[in-house]
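I had to read the description of the data format several times before I understood it. The format is easy to grasp once an entry is in front of the reader. For illustration, here is how one protein appears when written out as sequence plus structure tokens:
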Amino acid sequence: MKLSMKKIRGHHIAGLLCMVTFAVLLSIRGGLFAQKPQRVTGEALSAAERMAGKSHWMNIYQNGSRIGYARRSVTKLQQGGFAASELVYMRLMAMGLVQEVHFTTTGILRPDLTLDKFTFELASHLFSFRARGEMTDDRTMALYVGEPGKEERVDIPLKQRPYLGASLVETAAAQGLAVGQSRTFPVFDPATTGEKPVKLTVVSEETIPVMGEQVKALKVAVNFMGSDQYAWIGPDGEVLAEEGPLGIRMEKASIEQVFSGDYSSGETDMAQATSIDPGAVIAHPDKLKKLVIAVSGPGPEYLANLSGGRQEYADGLLTVTREDLPAAEVPGTEQNLPADIAPFAAPSTFIESDNPEIAKTAAEIASSSDPLVVRARKIVAWVYENLEKRPVFSVPDAVQTLKNRSGDCNEHSVLTAALARAAGIPAQMEVGVVYLKGKFFYHAWNSFYLDGRWVTADSAFGQFPADVTHLRFARGDARSQIDMMGVIGKLSLSIKDQETTGAVAKSEE
């Protein structure tokens, strides 16, 4: 099925933002597993004891409109330890389309609150994602991703036995952190199978309204991947409210308040709300040979990674130069890969290039006798033509994307990477922003390793190479998408120069 560029550009760009929305909520609530830097105190255990047997409800708002709810519970087990669970429901809008999203996290904790096992599930419209993990010893987590009976196992090495992230804020507060004090926890996120640090800082003591009453609470700043979020902790260690990017706020409520009335999708379209005006118009992005753009806002750790390949960053200016495709090699000739490139030729979590259906499809798209650049072109064209373009709130997975034949930039890029690797082409995912109708939007695409260098490709746009308005901020495997958390809401762009095939258009200062 051939899709028009108008339809494609209307729906695909919401994908990266959908992924980061989940990270915002997961980083505070369920889904993160923290490695404790010191032993659990009696105070923390007392906090868990006080919360055991209770369910705590919260309404979820986006810019003042109620879009969902969360329920959290802790149960003391007869054999010792605790069972913790969280359920979240939201109605979210991206590019004018509304989707209902459900995700749950459950965990079995030892008596000292360390993690024994967990399950994480996410469902939205066509897509679902499931991961479970269990500690095989104090330093190894066996992570299983996929449907029961078809799970992929990955053993994750850890420095020590981890803790359930859903209780991370409360446990830190119970340990006696005072105003101004901070603590950093390495965490594991099952949605990306990666470890990242979370820094907690007690900012102040405040009195806030909670269910019609004024309650004293500790305000705790949660910094995850450069994104600042906040939680307010009550005297008994309970989370009373939370705030994160994208206008999302969670507030304690009664079960009656949670289920009274309807949930809206809010008036905030996430893709539009986070778009960036560059101060100038690009009339024909696909015809540009070079783009020079001023970049500011994100931390130095992001700006330091802007240079590489077709991008060069210096003195606040990012220059992107369109690549030339490599000449066709002798048919059948494969590449001798450097050690740092070889991992991008192998299967990985969410990019299952060794899956039989993925391998079969790749072989049907391109012949092993085709030059690598020809295989790459055929794969980009096939994904472009065979995937329905629509925003999806889920964790992108190549096998499920191939089955559903639907998705946004996340699904396009993860399937493209899997098909390319199955066809003998090293491929990675790139994340950043792309120009569309006067603004830059958050987006994900690919690059292929061909003739000793990386060459960009965007199967959602049907571009090979991708146009120079694709500004890369991070690249790697599927988990690289979470690396954009510290950029969203902070990025400022200003176009300085545009070079086409025969002229240079300089933007107004």
About this structure: DSSP finds eleven helices and 27 strands in the chain.
